[in-house]
């Protein structure tokens, strides 16, 4: 019990620190205008914003928590629907406030992990697919301004996939003593940071 409490307490400390960091620094990877283009630029872009980074890790982490077939399905569903969102963004298809949708994705995905939500395959896939559209849309609006959209997109998708894999690897702690508590604590941290992102998005 003492070990479990330590995991939870440590998770909330990190979460509060992340929340404070959000209030003092820009957080989104897609707040600027225009893209330099190129594979390297596309690969680096997901790592430059905590919103996309945490959402990608959460997809892999939640998939690992849910197990087969979702550990494999969710990291495929997200990039596929992100492409759909990107196309919608390029053609400026009307969509609810994108930054709010992205922030909500971090809150919900982190919350699903923190609360041990064992959604059925169809429900988890719909949740992830819906949020993927918002993430893809945000970057799709910027793609026409990229110097090399195809290479940029390839780098971006590869980095997204690696972030999914990172989340899955983090999910392996479930097999360790108190591993579920550790996973849920990570989810709580992610959701807490997501609340900070949502606060910033609503304030824009």
Overall pLDDT score: 81
Poorly predicted ranges: 1-29
Main sheet? none
Looking at how many chains there are and whether they match, the oligomeric state comes to single chain
- Strand and helix order: HHHHHHHH
Specify Rg, calculated over alpha carbons. 16 Å
The amount of beta strand, in percent, is: under 5%
Extended strand count: 0
Distance between the termini: 42 Å
Q: What structural class should be given to the helix and strand makeup?
A: mainly alpha
The dominant shape is: globular
What helical percentage do the residues reach?
over 70%
Number of helices: 8
Structural overview:
The protein has 204 residues and is an all-alpha fold. It is 75% helix and 0% strand. It starts with a helix and ends with a helix. The relative contact order is 0.23.
Question: What is the compact description of this entry?
Answer:
With 204 residues, the chain is mostly helical. The protein has helices at residues 2-24, 39-44, 50-66, 70-90, 98-114, 121-140, 149-171, 179-203.
